[in-house]
Design a protein that fits this description.
Layout lengths: L2 H12 L5 H31 L4 E7 L17 H9 L1 E3 L2 E2 L5 H10 L28 H7 L3 E7 L46 E5 L11 E2 L2 E2 L3 E7 L1 E6 L7 H17 L5 E6 L21 H23 L5 E7 L9 H6 L17 H4 L3 E4 L8 E3 L3 E2 L3 H8 L18 H4 L10 E4 L5 E5 L2 E4 L12 H4 L9 E4 L15 H17 L19 H6 L8
Parallel strand pairs: 1-10, 1-11, 2-13, 3-14, 4-5, 4-10
Antiparallel strand pairs: 2-12, 5-6, 6-7, 8-9, 11-12, 15-16, 16-17, 17-18
Helix pairs in contact: 1-2, 6-7
Length: 547
């Protein structure tokens, strides 16, 4: 930089005799050059930090609530998740895009709301076809373009393209009863549309939840052991003879550590997506963890989930790469009623904290989740942030971190906003609003302190459930909550703010029609989300599908 100044100083310094005024001028110019060069070095240093490519690990627990971590008041010890919060940043207003499994995972990997896809409500099952088409860019594929080696270990739950046995053959279990579907699958053939098709360089997964057959591991889109027997984790179906739900967390911890070990030796940064199976049903803590918590099996399982986080952190420390690794921990939705929430509350443990509802619901307990980020030297240790963020924002954030924001095309990450400014301590709100979604496909939209639920009840599994709420004419068709004054969503104030309701309805309609919520050209959805109740459509016909 500044070659004309350097050249001038060099020429003056080579002279054997100069006047005092010239010497003074030289000293002044040298001082200027040094000062300017220092600014350039600092500027380049900041730029390098801005486009640094840290290793990235995204850990996703399953059905673990906001209050299930001990730093949020939970009674089951979670020292390793707490360590992330102590050494990083805790977000207190973080949300999944849905209150159930599959849709949240879709949003994390694509940066797009799930209701824009074919999945307008509910979740996929183990035999369902892939939800993410090969043409869609995932965060794994994007990071691959940025020079990362990418891997996934854990629960996939986004559909797989199983290959059928020839001639319509349907096999029987090698021993015991033959139950469930999937006996017509050729487990010797690779699946289509799996992680390796969608940008992951390597994968070790189970197809869906541990209560959804088939119960098998797949490595790099091939079954590790064919399903030849029936096993029952709530839903009986084909399973590998050596597959046991109780072993999954230990297997995922082992595979994660191996991935970190191998990639710590590489010049390429790595991305590890680690979606766990716990503490989702079946609630099966391994023998080493049974009886460890004061909360029974569920608390034990929460503690074992935390142990997996600890295994990841231990391997990072062992390999000396913790300083250059961003670790994000969150969950896919709130705690499930399968955890026996009333019994937990009776023991003084509130798995969803003071938020109303639980998994499957449109209320906060369904989608407000633990969310902590550790990135040594970049994120202030022990910090807390109350900015509105979502799991769907992961895509844009890592693009921002790696200097690739301008590489996101019009048809990628349509609903993802970077929270890198928040990680840096910026207090400005980047995300203008957020759209929530329940298991029944009911919507809510949140802007600032205001949250509008486009349904008369929970939209999920807590009271009033959708089938009851729709018939109860005393319930207004929509619910407006002031989360600042009423964080537990106890008082519906929609009748006091009709104009605000209309504004939020119109904002949701625009978000659906535009095919995106980020700036950019209009994109298409895979059909209109026709999940609004008739009473809602009667009151707000603009929510109906265009004719």
């Amino acid at each position: 930089m500044f070659p004309f100044l350097v050249r001038t100083c060099a020429a003056g310094c080579r002279r054997s005799s100069v006047g005092r005024s010239q010497q003074a001028m030289q000293r002044l110019m040298i001082t200027v050059v040094v000062a300017l060069a220092s600014q350039v070095v600092v500027s380049r240093s900041l730029t390098a930090a801005a486009v640094d490519k840290p290793n990235i690990i995204f850990i996703l627990a399953d059905d673990q609530g906001y209050g299930d971590v001990s730093h949020a008041g939970g009674l089951a010890a979670t020292p390793h998740i707490d360590r992330l919060a102590t050494e990083g940043m805790r977000f207190t207003d973080a949300h999944t895009t849905s209150s159930v499994c599959t849709p949240t995972r879709y949003g994390i990997l694509t940066g797009r709301y799930n209701w824009r896809s074919r999945l307008k409500k509910s979740v996929l099952f183990g035999l369902d076809k892939p939800l993410i088409p090969k043409r869609r860019t995932t965060v794994a594929r994007f990071l691959g373009r940025r020079g990362y080696h990418t891997g996934v270990v854990g629960k996939w739950h986004l559909g797989l393209g199983w290959q059928k046995l020839p001639g319509g053959e349907v096999r029987k279990a090698e021993q015991g009863k033959t139950q469930g579907g999937g006996w017509d699958i050729d487990y010797a053939r690779p699946v289509a549309g799996g992680p390796n098709t969608l940008g992951f360089d390597e994968s070790f997964i189970i197809p869906a939840s541990l209560d959804m057959f088939p119960y098998v591991y797949l490595r790099n889109d091939r079954t590790v052991q064919a399903a030849t027997v029936t096993k029952a984790f709530h839903r009986p179906g084909p399973a590998g003879k050596d597959f046991e739900a109780v072993n999954c967390l230990r297997d995922f911890a082992r595979e994660s550590r191996d991935f970190i070990t191998r990639n710590s030796q590489s010049d390429k940064p790595f991305f590890l997506y680690l979606p766990l199976t716990s503490p989702h049903t079946p609630i099966v803590p391994s023998p080493a963890w049974q009886g460890k918590s004061p909360l029974g099996p569920y608390g034990d399982f929460v503690m074992e989930t935390d142990w997996v986080v600890g295994q990841v952190l231990e391997e990072l420390d062992k390999r000396g790469i913790a300083e250059n690794t961003l670790v994000l921990f969150t969950t896919d939705n709130g705690c499930s009623p399968a955890a026996k929430i009333p019994a937990l509350i009776a023991k003084g443990h509130r798995p969803n904290a003071h938020w109303r509802g639980h998994k499957a619901d449109i209320f906060e307990g369904g989608h407000r989740v633990p969310f902590v980020v550790r990135w040594p030297g970049r994120v202030k240790a022990g910090s807390q942030n109350d900015r509105l963020v979502s799991t769907v924002d992961f895509f844009a954030t890592v693009a921002d971190i790696t200097g690739g924001t301008d590489q996101i095309t019009a048809g990628e990450a349509e609903d993802s906003f970077s929270f890198l400014p928040a990680l840096r301590g910026d207090s400005a709100q980047v995300r203008p609003y957020l759209i929530h979604h329940s298991i029944q496909g009911q919507f809510a939209i949140r802007r600032g302190q205001w949250k509008l639920c486009l349904c008369p009840g929970s939209g999920g599994w807590s009271a009033p459930r959708p089938n009851v709420a729709r018939k109860n004419k005393s319930l207004p068709p929509v619910q407006l909550f002031d989360l600042t004054a009423d964080p537990s969503e106890t008082t519906n104030v929609q009748d006091q703010h009709p104009q605000r309701v209309r504004e939020l309805v119109d904002l949701l309609v625009t978000a659906i029609r535009q095919g995106r919520t980020t700036p950019g050209t209009q994109q298409s959805n895979e059909g209109w989300p026709n999940t609004f109740a008739k009473r809602v459509l009667t009151a707000y016909p603009q929510l109906d599908a265009p004719r």
